[in-house]
Amino acid sequence: MIPYSTQHITDEDIAAVVGVLRSSFLTQGPAVPAFEQAFAARHQVPHAVAVSSATAGLHIACLALGLGSGDLLWTVPNSFVASANCALYCGAAVDFVDIDPVTRNMDIGQLADKLAAAELAGRLPRIVVPVDFSGLPIDILAIRQLADRYGFKIVEDASHAVGAARGSRAVGSEGADITVFSFHAVKTVTTGEGGMCTTADPVLADRMRRLRTHGITRDPAEMQQTPEGPWSYEQLELGYNYRLTDIAAALGQSQLARLDGMAAAREAHACRYDALLGGSGLTLQPRRPDTTSSHHLYVVELPSHVERAAAFSRLREAGIGVNVHYYPIHCQPHYRTLGFDWGQFPASETYYRRCLSIPLFPAMTTEQQDDVVSVLLKQLEQPRRAASN
Length: 389
Ligand SMILES: *Cc1c(COP(=O)(O)O)cnc(C)c1O
What we know:
Blueprint (H helix, E strand, L loop, with lengths): L10 H11 L9 H12 L4 E5 L2 H11 L7 E4 L6 H8 L3 E4 L11 H14 L5 E3 L10 H11 L2 E5 L7 E2 L2 E2 L7 E5 L12 E5 L2 H10 L4 E2 L16 E2 L10 H12 L1 H19 L13 E2 L5 E4 L6 H10 L15 H5 L8 H9 E4 L7 H13 L11
Parallel strand pairs: 2-3, 2-4, 4-5, 5-8
Antiparallel strand pairs: 1-9, 6-7, 6-12, 8-9, 10-11, 13-14
Helix pairs in contact: 1-8, 2-8, 3-4, 3-7, 5-6, 9-13
């Protein structure tokens, strides 16, 4: 089976992990801050806070920005459930903004309209979570303008977008209050499980560092009581154990050093797909001028005469590990118990019924890609007429 995505692990990655295993610290040692600094430098941002997953990162990003019960967070239906669940963890409510059918990212026109209506109704969101779907950066500066006008905070879910850029600015370096990245094994840089929160705001960075480790400080200047000795620490608020291990951080830093090469390979594969699949009747991955996608996913939309479920099965049977991203969040049973249902966000729903993620990973061979293309194109052939002439 050619997987839709797979990790790229080298001998250097393995040596980096073994180095930590042979050292004194498996966690809370020097590898985490070293990885944070390397990630911050690569993403042109002052602060990077490593966490145990992007899900954990989204949770503490929302907490650091003050999301709580009675508040509202808006995101898109076309994402992984974690983009919305972070609101529920904080006791806040969720609502959605539909996607732009071309970019498959949040429709900023609809966001503006919904904000205007919400202002009149006195129910503005405290946080908006746009997603850089497939690694294609959303127009974050347009959302920033709306944030400044309506007073909400932006947590950008850049789980797909490690290494993506707008012009010469890396995703994570501008626009959002906090940007969250994922290092899950299928993502473009991996630590097995892991994530990173970036911000330009030192206060938010400190708050997230505290929240990822139980709300505890060891800094006497932050303590409310006089420290009784060098062993003293204080829990100032309720936090979690959302730390990344040094083992994982060493893998991440080693992977990060190869990011440019892995991104170039993904870009080359995506360009080749564009060329081989263009004009076939498939709707291809969009491009935005002046942006660099990280190409975490390569998603095609099938034309309406092709039944997705049948095409999916035939591709899988032929050894092509296709996948579907995403079943709309608002249609998940848990969200339906909260009052959402099919029909509310039609662009996300229509997109979902046609989409297919096809294999894309750095080490993919030309042969594998040709295989994917030929089986995929076969699915587009018109059904044969019963009586041929
Ligand atoms: C993978 C992913 C997440 C969650 O990432 P984890 O690191 O697995 O917690 C969140 N949002 C999106 C869009 C994702 O793709």
